Amino acid sequence: MRGSHSVEKVGGTSMASTATLFDNVLIAGRKGIDLYNRIFVVSAYAGMTDLLLEHKKSGRPGVYARFVADEGADGWRDAMAEVRRAMHDRNAEMFARSESLQDADAFVDLRIDTVSTCLDDLARLRSHGRFCLREQLVTVRELLAGLGEAHSAHSTALLLRDRGVNARFVDLTLWDQQDMLDLDECIVGALKTIDLSTTLPIVTGYAGCAEGMVRRYARGYSEMTFSRIAVLTKAREAIIHKEFHLSSADPKLVGASKARKIGRTNYDVADQLANLGMEAIHPGAGRGLRQTEIPLRVRNTFDREDEGTLICGDYVSDTPRVEIVTGIRNAQALQFFEQDMVGVKGYDAAILEALTRHGAWIVSKSSNANTITHYLSTDAATMTRVIDDLHARYPDASISAHPVAMVSVIGSDISRPALVADALAALADAGINIVAMQHQIRNVDVQFIVDVDKFESAIKALHGAFVEADGGKAETQRAA
Q: How far is CA 149 from CA 35, 335, 378, in A?
């Protein structure tokens, strides 16, 4: 039986817009008991995890990357000092009460000083040259990741209490414990004494557990924590607050007046988006919600009145239609040709092994009698390493990689008559030749492989043909 509460996750960009977050989400006009029966799982403030680990997009080294690079004492210490300044600056912007500001800064200083002491000890061991710290470095990454969420959750709970809300900081990071629990035990133990009808838990998106959240889920760990809390507490609904609506296409590409919010869709569509790197939710997190039949709502933090997009397991659009047009601007097509492949097993497994070893994300694949092509979301350097490995194993094979773009039309049911023909016509009218096409039997998506420089024009052409042309019928509306 489901509970009467919701479990809600707030992303980093929304966390950084503190005033809006309080006005539109955390309080949003509620009073008394209406403030409760919610559990909030919070990410670190935008940019903080980049400073702690490394910048997600540019790769600029943070504390962890500089410690691993072994730049000496000054390298990682300078990076840690930058983190301390950033957290103090963030606190100074948020807190009006001097006592709360002092409390928030003292919390930051304690956590940073403790982790810095750990890094000092490891640095001394490493200086001896006979100690292998590979496993300890994994622990360092976990510790540093947890700092960001601990800071944001602690500060948010303080700010809520300053406003008269009975908020409780729930620290899942286990930052000072040696014996790690598994994730479910960690969550159940932390929440079991909390009365949700009178207390508003603010929970760290990072959880210190035996599995290693960063090791297993990379930057998607906060969504896994959010999902498990929803599942274990039998939530009525799971809600993610983002800085944008889940829209029919990127408004920056097709124009804000043309993009439409997706009112409803299903978890199958969410999986396709995750596969393309356009996550509504981490696929692992979505799996738990889907299996326990908990609906997921994606809301725009900056649009208080809008109910967002509801994602359910059993939803199918009333009529077959395209809901979203998206894709990958910079992909790689790995083509493996071997004349002797016909009727021989083992080639596919070897390619998959090489791709897994080098961390290349597989978006799609196709094959015929003597050729296997993988479409990958990865960089050229990774492709070079993969090709070198495969050439060493199959010296007679012809193996090549080509930069391509992938554009996908996605919907809960796209069994629309002549969809592929209409898509090809729209692309042809825009002067776009397709390199390849993938169409699965499930009628959830069709992928078009085009030249990289045609990515934006392909998005616009397909969105115009399948979304704008229907006048926004069914469950879509214009995106804010």
A: 22, 42, 28
Rounded average pLDDT over 218-223: 84
Tell me the three state secondary structure of residue 380: helix
- Domains in the chain: boundaries: 6-243, 324-478
User: Residue 367's beta-bridge partner residues?
Assistant: 372
The tens digit of pLDDT for each residue in 332-379 reads: 999 999 988 887 888 999 999 999 999 899 999 999 999 999 999 998
Amino acid 148 reads: G
Per residue in 151-207, pLDDT tens?
Answer: 999 999 999 999 999 999 999 998 766 667 889 999 999 999 999 999 999 999 999
CB under 8 Å to 230, separation ≥6 — which residues?
Answer: 7, 238, 288, 289, 292, 294
- Residue 218's contacts (CB-CB under 8 Å, 6 or more residues apart) are none
The answer to whether domain 6-243 and domain 324-478 are alike in fold is no
| 202 touches 163 (CB < 8 A) | no
What is the helix, strand, coil percentage profile of the chain, to 5? 45, 20, 35
Per-residue confidence (pLDDT) for residue 178, from 0 to 100: 66
Q: Give the Cα separation of 386 and 167 in Å (integer).
A: 50
Listed residue (199, 203, 92) closest to 146, CA to CA:
203
Assign domain 6-243 to its CATH superfamily: Acetylglutamate kinase-like (3.40.1160.10)
d(Cα 203, Cα 153) in Å, to the nearest integer?
6
For every residue of 318-334, DSSP letters joined together read: SS-B--EEEEEEEEEEE
The C-alpha atoms of residue 80 and residue 86 are separated, in whole angstroms, by: 10
Note the pLDDT tens digit of each residue in 381-395: 999 999 999 999 999
Q: Six-digit token pair at 177?
A: 């414990």
Binned at pLDDT 50, 70 and 90, residue 287 comes out as: confident
- Sheet harboring 167-170: ordered strands across? 167-170, 200-204, 38-42, 6-10, 237-242, 296-300, 309-312, 264-266
> Do 260 and 247 contact (CB within 8 A), yes or no?
yes
pLDDT of residue 130: 58
The CATH number assigned to the domain with range 324-478 reads 3.30.2130.10
Rg (CA), the chain: 24
Alpha-carbon gap, residue 408 to 420, rounded angstroms: 12
How does residue 129 score in pLDDT terms, banded at 50, 70 and 90? Answer: low
* Three-state helix/strand/coil letters over 118-177: HHHHHHHHHHCCCCCCHHHHHHHHHHHHHHHHHHHHHHHHHHHHHCCCCEEEECCCCCCC
